[in-house]
Amino acid sequence: MKLLVILSSRPYDGTDVIWNAIRLIDTALVEGHRVNVFVMNDAVDVVRGDSKPEGAEFDLTNMLIESTKRGSKVKICTTCVNRCGIKKGEIISEAKLAGMSDLVKWIEEADKTITF
After folding, report:
1. DSSP-derived pairing of the beta strands 95-98 and 112-115
2. pLDDT tens per residue, the chain (116 residues)?
3. Which helix (H) or strand (E) is 68 found in, with range?
4. DSSP code, position 91
5. Do 66 and 26 touch, CB atoms closer than 8 A?
6. Can you spell out the DSSP letters for 12-55?
7. What share of the chain is helix, strand, coil (3-state, %, to 5)?
8. Are the C-beta atoms of residues 19 and 58 closer than 8 Å to each other?
9. N or C: which terminal CB in the chain sees fewer CB atoms within 10 Å?
10. How many CA atoms are closer than 13 Å to the CA of 50, on its beta-carbon side?
11. CATH architecture label of 2-115
């Protein structure tokens, strides 16, 4: 099955939303599914190389990087990145900048779309 996971929630917000999303991504990959991840809105902080706050239990950015090593593809909303003032050099190399047309294409190709 081809899954599209849309990350939209702020990482490190005191909840486990993004942590659980990345755990789902990894589980799907291990079980042989193809997974695309589109990062937008407040979730764009997870693609910053230095986003883990001091004292955080999990390094969500590193978890996302590890998922790419297992086969996930990660794209980031360019407009969201620009609105948040994130510079290209601050973004992990495993993630590619993209637009709404890329998201539409991934939605069309996906068997299931899940939003966190």
Report:
1. unpaired
2. 999 999 999 999 989 999 999 999 999 999 999 999 999 999 999 998 776 677 778 899 999 999 999 999 999 999 999 998 888 788 999 999 999 999 999 999 999 999 99
3. helix 60-69
4. B
5. yes
6. TSSSSHHHHHHHHHHHHHHTT-EEEEEE-GGGGGGGBTT-PPTT
7. 45, 25, 35
8. yes
9. N
10. 4
11. 3-Layer(aba) Sandwich (3.40)
How, if at all, do strands 2-7 and 73-77 pair? Answer: unpaired
**CB count in 10 Å sphere of residue 45:** 20
Closest CA to 44 of 90, 4, 1: 90
Residue from 116, 69, 115 nearest 95 by CA = 69
Residue ranges covered by each domain of the chain: 2-115
Query: How many Å apart are CA 31 and CA 53, to the nearest integer?
Result: 31
